[in-house]
Amino acid sequence: LSESGIPQLVQLMIWDYAADIEVEGKVQLVEKYRRCGFKVWFASAFKGATGANQSLPLIGHHLRNQLEWLQVASRSPADVLEGIALTGWQRYDHFSVLCELLPVAIPSLAVCLQALKNGGYSEKIKENVEELLGMSNLKIDTFMR
């Protein structure tokens, strides 16, 4: 692959929306791509990745996904990682119904963005998100109304 010149033309994206993404396996994958000369992006999700008919996002699931990717990033060489694409899927395919519409997913988006921006999540970040959104009780591990 290195000799083909493809790594200079293509950047790879590693997608995984799980709350437990097997950090060590992802670190090894990044290293394998680095040895070939590729630049790598990660893809996480703040909504739309936990069920085709999901109505509300489970913020805790998506937050854990971001935190796992941050672990992978911290254990990967800085010269190979280009960034993270925070996705928000609207449907599983073009024949599926819409899931987790953006208005109900804004708290999840805010939590995930703040976790990525700050390199982690804490009570202070939770309070910051609550203040930004004008909410008094942000729920992470249960479905919010």
From TrEMBL:
UniProt cross-references to SUPFAM superfamilies, sorted A to Z: (Trans)glycosidases
Molecular function GO terms recorded: hexosaminidase activity
Superkingdom of the source species: Eukaryota
Protein name: HEXDC Hexosaminidase
Gene: Hexdc_0
